Amino acid sequence: AERRLPTEMIGGLLSPFVGRETELKLLAGLFDSESRVPFRWQQISAPSGVGKSRLAIEWLAEAERRGWDMGVVDPRDSELLRGWRARKATALVLDEAETQWSGELDIALQRLCAGASARRPVRVLVLGQFAPYAPDCAPLPLRDSEVTPAVRLGLLDDAEVMALVAQVGQPDRA
User: Shortest CA distance to 52 belongs to which of 89, 86, 100?
Assistant: First the structure.
C-alpha cells in the first residue's frame, strides 16, 4: 500500500514549511540512536495557526526517511492502543492534546510507553495550545520514559513571513 504523509491533520492541504528549521532539528533529536530509552515524548505548544501540525508533519516525514513507522493517533481510536506493541521503531503524533484528548492523554501515553521496547522505540509528539504537563510533572507510570522540555512555538518573524508569501504567492484580487 502507498504511504502518505498525514496531511489530514491540516485538512489535506500542505502549506510550505518555512521558519521552523531550528525546531525541526531539535525534534529530530528524539530519533537519536544513542538514547537507549524505549519511550521518549515531547510536548509542543503554541496558539492555533502558528504551525504545530505542519512541524509535526515534517517530523513524521523525517521519521519515515529514517525507516520508522509513523502516523497520527486519532483520539476516537484510543481503545486500539490497549495492548498495542510497536512492530518497529515508531513515531506518532497526538494532536490537540487539551481538547481532543481531554482525560485520555495519560492513558494513551501509558499505553504507547508499554508498547515500546529497546529494539522497537516509540517517539511521540504531543501537540496543543498549552503544554498539558508542567516540566518534571509527567504522569507517574511515565517516569521511566524520557520527556524533553516543551517546545513553545512563537510567531514567524517578518523575514519568515515574506519567505512564506513568496512560496505561496500573492492571492488574486479579482
Answer: 100
